[in-house]
Specification:
The chain is α+β, with helices and mostly antiparallel strands and 118 residues long. The chain has two helices and five strands, in the order H-E-E-E-H-E-E.
């Protein structure tokens, strides 16, 4: 379990750095509400972006982004709704996935999928 948690944190750090380089401002890591969690919440200009990060060592069992199924998306949306209420957010939002395949420490492929669900 600790190893998965460690891998998850590493993926979130890589994703946060990737987003910062694209001009995003990271607001929150690991926002939790009930059984849901959002890995990163960021601002892209005036747009609030909820980001799910998936990291895998290879694609033997599919691409990382394929791990976000309808049930996972539903939990992310419910968690985002709570964040929006809690922070009285009035602007536009978007849901993204950052998929990372890291086959070696220095070899990683990062894909950014914008506006993946509603």
């Amino acid at each position: 379990m600790g190893n998965n948690l460690e891998k998850g944190r590493e993926g979130e750090q890589l994703a946060a750095q990737f987003l910062r380089e694209k001009g995003y401002q990271i607001l929150t890591y690991n926002y939790r509400y009930k059984r849901g969690e959002i890995d990163l919440i960021a601002l892209q200009g005036v747009l609030l972006v909820f980001v799910e990060v998936k990291l895998r060592k290879n694609t033997t069992f599919g691409y990382p982004e394929e791990a976000v199924d309808a049930q996972k998306a539903k939990r992310i949306i419910q968690t985002a709704e709570q964040y929006i209420l809690q922070h009285n957010w009035q602007g536009d939002i978007r849901f993204d996935i950052i998929a990372i395949v890291q086959s070696a420490p220095s070899k990683k492929e990062i894909s950014h999928f914008e506006d993946v669900f509603y």
